[in-house]
Design goal:
mainly alpha, three-stranded mixed sheet, 6 helices
Length: about 210
């Protein structure tokens, strides 16, 4: 994340309602013993600006918890203007709210760390890419269902069920007693039967050819 927010229009928003405790010092390298009792968000910003002066004036500090109760502060306009999110949360519910709800709703990529335990230290989610993958996966499933799975099931049913055509047509027409239904039924049986016979022959030819 080096260089994030340092561009001409760059801006970083940081929020943390906690104050620094002595027990934080062994795992949070931005803080020093003199910082104990200070707000974590404000102290972290000062330390980061010392490391990278280009961030001076580009970081806005909040002290509110992120959640449904503070949506008046972090509202839809706020989330819409973001280009990404990074979390270092130690509360699973907060992580779910930020990464799995707000970032997903506004299609913001997210960098999550802090609540994955043995799964690892970080997890990156590119929501736009994931949404595209999910769409194409569903499209592929629907295409497979229509072109391969359902026709195969129909052929299997036709070969194994003597009354397959009657049952299928009876589900289509409300009054199978009508004379014209019997004509359609007979014609349809011949057409379907011929088509199935040809398909079975092709499949056998392919199998015999070792293709």
């Amino acid at each position: 994340m080096m260089g994030v927010g340092t561009g001409p229009n760059g801006q970083i928003f940081i929020t943390d309602m906690d104050t620094i405790e002595k027990s934080n010092l062994n795992r949070q390298f931005l803080f020093r013993p003199k910082d104990v009792g200070s707000l974590e968000s404000e102290t972290a910003v000062k330390a980061v600006i010392c490391m990278n002066p280009d961030l001076d004036g580009k970081i806005r500090v909040f002290q509110e918890r992120v959640g449904p109760a503070t949506e008046s502060v972090f509202d839809d306009d706020f989330s819409e203007a973001l280009t990404g999110g990074a979390n270092a949360l130690d509360i699973v519910d907060a992580r779910k709210y930020v990464a799995d709800r707000r970032c997903v709703d506004f299609r913001n990529p997210s960098l999550e760390s802090g609540t994955l335990g043995t799964k690892g230290n970080t997890q990156i989610g590119a929501l736009a890419l994931l949404a595209s993958i999910a769409y194409h996966f569903q499209w592929s499933r629907d295409l497979f269902e229509g072109l391969l799975r359902q026709p195969t099931k129909n052929i299997t049913a036709y070969l194994s069920q003597p009354n397959f055509v009657e049952t299928t047509l009876a589900q289509t027409f409300e009054s199978p007693e009508r004379g014209w239904f019997k004509v359609v039924l007979a014609a349809d049986r011949n057409v379907v039967g011929l088509a199935v016979e040809r398909l079975v022959k092709v499949l056998k030819d392919v199998e015999n050819a070792g293709l």
